[in-house]
Write a structure and sequence with these properties.
alpha/beta, five-stranded mixed barrel, 12 strands, Spore Coat Polysaccharide Biosynthesis Protein SpsA, Chain A, globular, 279 residues
């Protein structure tokens, strides 16, 4: 099966993180919110954007509560593109929650067989953004060459409630040498957080290579060792990619897009997304 998937056609995979349920969204699966003009779910709209951009494999990272709903809804394919599933698990006797987004991505390590984009399953990044980052991966074939998409902060804030965003630290060539997670950002507290409207931030859209997974696995092992006994510590993907870039294990190129990001974070956001897609 592995060899058949590798095949002769250049595979590019989009990996959607969909393991968690949202407490802020009433404990529902945000990806199933109907936002499209024909009643398409948020997840369907995002998949359509990725497929139009050229991605020809989809992987869902699911969790205990999202596994069956996703498999029931999407089965093994969407619009003739195959879908594969990876499950993030944790031991409730030792942990209150999973080990975070690095752990989530690594749950798919054995089924990722190509350059890939990993992103949130409850955000819409735009077809052009997907294509731009896919093209970069195919044009820059070195296993160290990775990329991320930057969005201006003022364009990615929620109208209701605070959001978490990672801001980039760049070198003179425009490569990322660090990411710093900033929590509970609101339009009225930018100065307090040391941010500006035009600050480029990550929306967790990363273009990576298979080798990156090996590097992240090493980082996760170390993180778990350093946080042994902590029931809630989480290893965040933006932070660890920033460290890999800082230590010159990878090159993380910051790309820019004019696509508008849309996301569902708080109740009521789906109405804003639905209106934006309609227009």
């Amino acid at each position: 099966m592995v060899e058949a998937r590798r095949g002769r056609v250049q595979k590019t995979t989009v990996v959607f993180m969909a393991a968690g349920m949202s407490s802020r969204f009433g404990g529902k699966i945000k990806q199933f919110a109907e936002v499209g003009p024909k009643g398409e779910t948020l997840m369907e709209v995002s998949m359509q954007q990725a497929i139009k951009a050229g991605f020809n494999e989809i992987i869902f990272i699911v969790g205990e509560k999202t596994e069956e709903p996703f498999k029931d809804k999407f089965k093994s394919g969407y619009l003739d593109v195959p879908i594969y599933y990876a499950k993030q698990t944790f031991n409730p006797s030792e942990r209150d929650r999973p080990w975070g987004t690095v752990d989530a991505l690594l749950s798919a390590k054995d089924i990722i067989l190509s350059p890939f984009v990993v992103c949130n399953g409850d955000d819409l990044y735009g077809e052009k953004s997907f294509k731009l980052i896919r093209d970069y991966l195919l044009e820059n074939t070195s296993e160290e060459e990775c990329a991320t998409m930057g969005y201006e902060l003022e364009n990615v804030l929620s109208n209701q409630g605070g959001v978490n965003r990672a801001k980039y630290i760049l070198d003179k060539e425009g490569n990322v040498v660090g990411l710093e997670e900033v929590f509970d950002i609101k339009k009225e507290n930018l100065a307090e957080k040391g941010l500006e409207k035009k600050t480029p931030v990550s929306m967790n859209l990363f273009g990576l290579k298979e080798k990156t997974l090996e590097l992240l696995e090493e980082r996760l092992i170390e993180y778990k060792k350093n946080n042994e006994g902590d029931r809630r510590a989480e290893c965040y993907l933006p932070n660890e990619l920033g460290l890999l870039a800082k230590n010159k294990k990878i090159t993380l190129k910051l790309l820019h897009t004019k696509d508008k990001w849309l996301g569902v974070t708080n109740p009521g956001d789906e109405l804003i997304v639905r209106k934006a897609l309609k227009n």
